[in-house]
Structures are given as structure tokens and as C-alpha cells.
Amino acid sequence: MQKTSVPNTTKTNFVEYLDNLKSSQMDYNKMADALYFSRISFMENMLFDPRFSGYTNPIPIIPITPQIGTGIPNKFELWKKEHEQVVLPKSDDTITIKNPLGEHEKKYMEIDFSLNDLGDVLRLIENNPIDNTITYNIDLNSLHNIKTELEQLNKMVGMKSLKSSILDQLVYFMQDLHLSDGSSDYKHTVLYGPPGTGKTDIAKIIGTMYSKLGILQKNIFKKVTRNDLVAGYLGQTAIKTKSVIQDCLGGVLFIDEAYALANSYEDDSFSKECIDTLCEALSDHKNDLMVIIAGYENELNNSFFRSNPGLESRFMWRFKTDCYNAKELKSIFKKKVDEAGWNVAESDITDAWFEKRKDHFPSFGRDMEMLFSYTKIAHSRRIYGKSKELKKCLNLKDLDRGYEMLLNNRKKENHISKAMLSMYI
To answer: Does the predicted TM-score (pTM) go above 0.70?
Structure first.
């Protein structure tokens, strides 16, 4: 770890100095000191001179009414905008600004570490609190800003390879390596995987992280399906699709089951109109839009990507959610129980119980949510009229009965679906 110091004075444009001061995220006391030294610098450097202030006439005195949330921030933006456009100092008109830290020199620190997984990033954040007296070799502020999202992602059950892939994307974007000559690489992403593997949650986390980092300008997340993009008449689909895209500019458009937009067996003019419009937008808005599509890997590759040759190259990021094993299903179920404030004895939920029944949980996380719901219903009958101490304490009987209810209701759903289908045959 190496430490070097920087001088306590800098040569800068006063507008740039105020910009840096405004975005430095100082606490109250440090900001008060910084403003004091700014005032001293303003007087000592004669920044009221017209070449800096832009004023040639006396400035009228305007009474200030203290109001929360108004005043200085807005007036500064107006002042900055006016003087950047009207009067700019000549290249040799530099000024000396005193370091707001006073006698203390701002130091430089290199943090030497390796990133193998998300746990390493979280340990890095935990071990390095933000210190405004130090400049780091990494953007520590940004990492602290997305700590919540990193924790959410890291706590998701399983998906080791997917988490590693998202980490690759994150550190690439955080270092602005995706930017070149004012343009950006494609941010569009594919999430391969079956239902119930957390694809929507992952997409939301990605969108929130990148909006906090400034990679995306807005914290917009819009989830759509085919019905939200395809209209009932030719010509209307393009309008409908463009409208959805416009709503998402600056943020994330998430298309679930994107393979439904295309059909690999027959021509579909409505789907073609939608996909062609989408493909064009992927390029036109690559700087200010992130499109994330999700669905089964084979279906996406054999229908969606085959429908337009230009789609393949526009989705350069491919993440895959794996199917959960019995142990991971148990962990998901236990997590849902804990988050709901319920209890279940570890001895009553075993890997063997889930291993025996895992084939009946094709939707993984969704099925665990349904299993928990039915288990609670079974529990409510078992404890009725009994001690209050039993309330919200699940046991194996509740779990077995909840599983039976899940299967019975699934059979009823299948029976109704077949009956509805027979009406049209």
C-alpha cells in the first residue's frame, strides 16, 4: 500500500472548483469549512472581477427567504449555466484555490486486492470506509453506493457462475472501459434460464446498480411481454413498441419470455414488425438504454435470435441461471420462511425430503413460494384452538400436508386447462 500527497493548492477554473465541491459528498462540518475557504479564495483572487463573474453593472440585492429544499443549489446551477455560456476566463486566466482541508494534505492510497467473487467486493467495502481526506486508486464511493444491491445479489441462492459473470460486467462498466469517442458498447443482456430462477429479480438489481453508478441515467425498470409490444393491426405494432422503448430511455427494458416475440415455424408479420423495431432501437439507443431479455436458452436461440440476424451481435452479455438442486430448493424455502417471520425446525426440513420431491418443483423458486403458502394453510388448521406458542412454528406435518395441497391444486389447474382446450377442438 503506497501513500503520496498532493499539493494543498490547485490551479483551476472557479466553476470547475465549485462543481467538484458540490459533488464531493462531504459531511456538514467539512462542507462548512469548504465554503468558508471558498469565500476567502473568492475575495483574495478578485473573482468578482467581470472576467470571472460576467457582471458589468451593480448586482441588485435580493432578499433571501429561507426555504427547505430551495435556494443555493438551484441558484448555483443557474449561475453556472449563465457564466459558462457568456463569459469564460482566457486560457491563461488561472486562479489559486486553497485546499478546503486547510493545513491537512489530501493523501493518495492504493488498495491492493483481488476480485474472485461478490464476497470479495463486499469485504472490500466493509474494510474500507469512505474517507474524504484520501483519494483512492478505485472508485470507493461508487462501491459503497451499490452495497445494498451487491448484498441482495450475493444472498441469492446458488448461481455462482452467473454472479461471476455479473461481476465481470460491473467492473468493466465501472472503469468506463465501455466508452469510446463519446459512444458506448452495447449494454443489452440475455438471462437464460427456466421460470422461477430469479431472472426478474436479477434484472432489477442490475438496473438499480447501474443507475446508481451513472451508467444508466435513470432508475427505470419496465417489465414487458409480447402483449405489451405487439398490437392487433399491422403498422400499430411499431408504434406500440416505440412507445414502450421511449418510456424506458435512460433505464432498463426487461422482456420476459422474449422467444414469444418470434415463431420459428411460421411467418408472423406482427412479430417481425416488433422485432425489427426493437433491433433498430438497440443500436440507436445503445448509449441510453439497456434491454434485458429472459427465457429458455434453446427457445431464445432458435426463435428470437434467428428472427433477425442483427440481434445476435447486439446482445453481447449472456448470463445463465442454473436449475436448482434439492439442497438449494431447501435453502430457498427456508429463506422464505425466515423472511416472513415464521419458524421451522431444521430437523423437519431435510435435503432428503426435497430430493425425493424435486421433480414436482419445475418452477423452482415459484414452487417454493407456493409450497410455503400451502404449508401455512395446513399449519393454520393444525394449531387451531391450541397454545399460542405454536403459532407460526411449522413442522414436518405442515410441510407434508402443504405439499399434498400443492399437488392437488396443480391437478385441478391442469384439468381446467384441458377442459378449456377441448372447447376449441
So the answer is: no
